[in-house]
Amino acid sequence: MEKGCNVLVTGVGGFIGFSLCRELLKNDINLIGYDNLNDYYDVNLKEARINILNESSDNRANWRFIKGSLEDKKILEDIFKKYNIEIVIHLAAQAGVRYSIENPSSYINSNLIGFSNILECCRNFSVKNFIYASSSSVYGGNTKIPFSEKDNVDHPVSLYAATKKSNEILAHSYSHLFKIPCTGLRFFTVYGPWGRPDMAPMIFTKAILNNEKIKIFNNGEMSRDFTFIDDVVEAIIRLIDKPATPQKNISNEISLNPSISWAPFKIFNLGNSESIPLMRFIKALEKEIGQTAIKEFVPMEQGDVKNTSADTKSLEDWIGFKPKTNLEDGLKKFVNWYLSFYGRT
Questions:
Q1: pLDDT value at residue 300
Q2: Is the bond leading into 146 cis (omega within 30 degrees of zero)?
């Protein structure tokens, strides 16, 4: 990163945004964090993350936290103008596959209207690099494993996935029309210290410690590509220094590969390239906690997918990095953090 550059990270109260900013604060840049700190999950956890960032800043003049929503275009425009934003890492969104079925308007407002507001600011203030969060959920009902960026993703099975697919399409149009370098990252089940309470590692750990049942969907016949947070942060930081560029000589390939373009536009899978069976994950978690889970096997939930697995060759070729933390090492770090933050109850 260029010394003194101005970077905006949205979603800094969230898991990935917080973890990224914590690392970025070690660099000599001007970092602006943005989040509405909504109550989708524990606000106290989000505020604790922000407090850590405030305490981690050696020079408070180089760090600003601003509270606001993505739908508030005026506040966003003021931020871009006042701080001369050059790089945007857009991680804020309404997350969660299952929650989208019950609360669709939250996803439309944040993930579509909010996303378009960010794109307009990138356009109007000549941003040099735009990196945004997509999701492995866009692969929907695809059954070919591992998932490749070349695969068709026109059949989402949740509203959340549909909004993330829409983000990719919107980003491409802005990249084409206004030459904004846009990089979309399809995250695969990110976990680790300071993780999200609505995801399996946190839900299962809390239940196991409290001798409560854990629901095992699809009767345990599921797998996930679990990706450790440190690997995700490393990849994003490398992408900051390598904005998307146009792909040359793609006339015969463009119809076969939606992740590239004649515009400065890229899409990458960001996963660990190993699909872990759900029962193996639970067994490894039980071992780290030192306690056996009380298991309740239930059918698949609406909007969920059976298996995920990332082909990350494109990302590795682009930035020379491949996520590498194995599940057991990652869970050890996660459980140690959980016990230090929440205790055993």
A1: 86
A2: yes
User: What is the spatial distance between Cα 335 and Cα 342, in angstroms, rounded to a whole number?
Assistant: 10
Dihedrals φ, ψ of 70, to 5°?
A: -70, -25
Q: Which residue has the tokens 């944040």?
A: 110
Give whole-number Cα distances, 13 to 51, 137, 196, 311, 343, in Å. 10, 22, 11, 29, 22
Catalytic residue of the set 34, 40, 160, 191: 160
CB 248 within 8 A of CB 328: no
Q: What is the pLDDT of residue 254?
A: 55
Question: Which residue blocks in the chain are alpha helix, DSSP H?
Answer: 15-24, 43-56, 73-83, 97-102, 104-107, 115-124, 159-178, 200-209, 229-240, 278-289, 313-319, 327-342
Q: What is the pLDDT of residue 256?
A: 63
CB 232 within 8 A of CB 323: yes
Phi, psi (deg, nearest 5) at residue 191: -145, 165
The predicted-structure confidence for 244-265, as pLDDT tens digits, reads as follows 999 887 765 555 688 889 999 9
CA–centroid distance for 227 within its chain: 11
Number of helices and strands in the chain (H, E) = 12, 13
d(CA 106, CA 52): 28
3-class secondary-structure state, position 131: strand
Residue type, 162: A
- Count Cβ atoms within 10 A of the Cβ of residue 170 and give its class: 0-12 exposed, 13-18 middle, 19 or more buried: middle
8 A C-beta contact, residue 194 and residue 46:
no
The pLDDT tens digits of the residues spanning 142-189 come to 889 999 999 999 999 889 999 999 999 999 999 999 999 999 999 999
Confidence at residue 258, expressed as pLDDT on a 0 to 100 scale: 82
pLDDT at 102: 83
How far from the centroid of its chain's Cα atoms is residue 236's Cα? 10
- Residue 160 annotated as catalytic: yes
Pick out the chain residues at pLDDT < 70: 57-61, 251-256, 345
The residue assigned the tokens 């960001």 is: 270
